[in-house]
Amino acid sequence: DQQVKQNSPSLSVQEGRISILNCDYTNSMFDYFLWYKKYPAEGPTFLISISSIKDKNEDGRFTVFLNKSAKHLSLHIVPSQPGDSAVYFCAASALSSGNTGKLIFGQGTTLQVKP
Amino acid sequence: DTGVSQNPRHKITKRGQNVTFRCDPISEHNRLYWYRQTLGQGPEFLTYFQNEAQLEKSRLLSDRFSAERPKGSFSTLEIQRTEQGDSAMYLCASSSQGASYTFGSGTRLTVV
């Protein structure tokens, strides 16, 4: 039962262009969503998050969009840089249901930004 | 504070042996989580501590797995009678509240 899905295992973009990573979820109880970035041999690093009361959150080059009716979120990176090359994980939590902070992760999307 | 520390970084063990991993969270964080990640998958939740209390355990945490967090500081994850299917990256994370964790670099377990 994959509650959070990232259907694109990989994405390749040219430096300076936009990277768009997508994520779908099935559980209506999820009310907080996060993106993590992971380099090889390191743990995931928190990137950006969004609460279900918002539909957009922006932090520098990174913007997360949430479409609750479609149960879909996306991460936009503009402009993309070679250092952004990593695995990106979408994660979701049901904070209003017990608030343990447990995260459900997607399978990840490997982003390659070509110079 | 140097973040979340996990030891060892790598562990190779023979099937049937017991292994123990250690996690030192960020000192002011009262929440501690263990996750497991296998190749091509995202991290999967194993268990959650708030201070020294283990408040949630996943079905993935079979009776061969046990986790502790004595005194609400560092935590250990023990796997008894290891099986090849236990081979994975074991990740520890901590937070003060909410769901924005700081992860450690993980312990990679290989069962041969």
Walkthrough of the structure:
The complex is a heterodimer of chains A (115) and B (112). By secondary structure, chain A is an all-beta fold. Chain A is 0% helix and 52% strand. In chain A, strands 2, 4, 5, 9, 10 and 11 form a 6-stranded mixed beta sheet that branches. Chain B is built from no helices and 11 strands. In chain B, strands 2, 4, 5, 6, 9, 10 and 11 form a 7-stranded mixed beta sheet that branches. A 4-stranded antiparallel beta sheet of chain B has the order 1-3-8-7, with no helix packed on it. The model of chain B has no long low-confidence stretch (mean pLDDT 93). Chains A and B meet through strand 4, strand 5, strand 9 and strand 10 of A and strand 5, strand 9 and strand 10 of B.
Describe the protein's topology:
The complex is a heterodimer of chains A (115) and B (112).
Chain A: E1 4-5, E2 10-14, E3 19-25, E4 32-38, E5 45-51, E6 56-59, E7 62-67, E8 72-77, E9 86-93, E10 104-105, E11 109-114
Parallel strand pairs in A: 2-11
Antiparallel strand pairs in A: 1-3, 3-8, 4-5, 4-9, 6-7, 7-8, 9-10, 9-11
Chain B: E1 5-7, E2 10-13, E3 19-24, E4 31-37, E5 44-50, E6 53-57, E7 65-68, E8 75-79, E9 88-95, E10 102-103, E11 107-111
Parallel strand pairs in B: 2-11
Antiparallel strand pairs in B: 1-3, 3-8, 4-5, 4-9, 5-6, 7-8, 9-10, 9-11
